[in-house]
Automatic annotation (TrEMBL):
Residues 54-127 form the Methyltransferase type domain. Residues 202-259 form the 18S rRNA (guanine(1575)-N(7))-methyltransferase Bud23 C-terminal domain. Belongs to the class I-like SAM-binding methyltransferase superfamily. BUD23/WBSCR22 family. This is S-adenosyl-L-methionine-dependent methyltransferase. Keywords: Cytoplasm, Methyltransferase, Nucleus, S-adenosyl-L-methionine, Transferase. Residues 224-234 have a biased composition (Basic and acidic residues). PANTHER family: 18S RRNA (GUANINE-N(7))-METHYLTRANSFERASE-RELATED, METHYLTRANSFERASE-RELATED. The lineage of its organism: Eukaryota, Fungi, Dikarya, Basidiomycota, Agaricomycotina. InterPro entries: Bud23-like, Bud23_C, Methyltransf_11, SAM-dependent_MTases_sf.
Length: 314
């Protein structure tokens, strides 16, 4: 069977039917969860500290759910409206943006403490149109340059993806390097046809740790052991303090929620901010409210008790 990214553009491939099918498939749920746990391990965030993460190509929130379970605040972006609709229906905790990552992103510098991306990057290797600025190198350059700026120094971005050749890995790593990232590729279970997983580990600055991460070793029969390892980690979280310590406190979260109840309507340029009115989870057009991009985003992302978002009634 062809890989999805060879069949149609993501927003077409993940239409209503496929988005629901994908999300309800228990095997996919398990695989995406395992890869997210591994990405978090490679992200190497300081334990017991809150962190604000970006989930690139968040889809219907399978990866984001793990971020929530592990106590992180997150923002997800995806180009497929149907996937985001499913995420909204499932009431994921993260805030969701409709955005093509190949066009770059407009977050204020240093907004995120880290980023993960599970099963997404291979989509950027396929040109959207024959226009030269839609070529994979152009899209990858826009993506990595703006991502580098959106991450704080030091931090990491971890991508699990499905390259089909070493040339693809080479293309991606060289463009990431030009955008300012350090790091490299980690391959788990390199000798296993079934369990082999490729992770691109990108560093801003030192990446927050001196040691380069190592790939997991073993053959197919050992894969179940790795699953057991993730499960026991999950169990540990459940047994211990369930939520990570919220050093920034309730005010921080409430401020974020307050800003998130407003979103861009379909007429707004660049992107749509899907969000929900907290109690009802209802999505409501607030187009009489215009939030000025990127100022609102900035104050939202840098949060705390800083400046109020620049919301203007029009
Ligand atoms: C296999 S799904 C993974 C979703 C989620 N990370 C998970 O673990 O379930 C791949 C996702 O990448 C998204 N995607 C592909 N190309 C994208 C692009 N250019 N911009 C944003 N999202 C994209 C797709 O819409 C889809 O939701």
């Amino acid at each position: 069977m062809s890989r999805p990214e060879l069949v149609a553009p993501p927003e077409i491939y993940y239409g209503d039917t496929e988005a629901t099918k994908y999300t309800n498939n228990s095997r996919i749920q398990q695989i995406q969860a395992d890869m997210t746990y591994r990405a978090l391990e490679l992200l190497n965030l300081p334990p017991e500290e809150p962190a604000f993460l970006l989930d690139i190509g968040c889809g219907s929130g399978l990866s984001g759910e793990i971020l929530t379970e592990e106590g992180y605040e997150w923002v997800g972006m995806d180009v497929a409206p149907s996937m985001l609709e499913v995420a909204l229906e499932r009431e994921v905790e993260g805030d969701l943006f409709l955005q093509d990552i190949g066009q770059g992103m407009g977050f204020r510098p240093g907004s995120f403490d880290g980023a993960i991306s599970i099963s997404v990057l291979q989509w950027l290797l396929n040109a959207e149109t024959s226009h030269p600025t839609s070529s994979p190198p152009h899209r990858l350059t826009r993506f990595f340059t703006t991502l580098h700026s959106a991450l704080r120094n030091p931090s990491r971005a971890i991508f699990q993806f499905y390259p089909t050749s070493d040339d693809q890995i080479q293309l991606i790593t060289s463009i990431a390097q030009k955008a300012g990232f350090g790091g490299g590729v980690v391959v788990d279970y390199p000798n296993s046809k079934k369990a082999r997983k490729v992770f691109l580990c990108l560093y801003v600055g030192s990446g927050g740790g001196q040691q380069a991460p190592k790939g997991l070793e073993g053959e197919e029969q050992e894969v179940d052991e790795s699953r057991a390892r993730f499960e026991s980690r999950r169990e540990r979280v459940k047994k211990g303090d369930k939520k990570r310590k919220q050093i920034k406190g309730k005010e921080w979260t409430l401020r974020k929620k307050e800003v998130c109840t407003t979103y861009w309507c379909a007429n707004c340029p660049r992107l749509t901010f899907y969000s929900v009115v907290s109690s009802t989870r209802e999505r409501k057009c607030t187009s009489r409210l215009k939030i000025h991009w990127p100022q609102a985003q900035s104050s939202f992302l840098r949060t705390g008790s800083r400046a109020k978002p620049f919301i203007k009634l029009v």
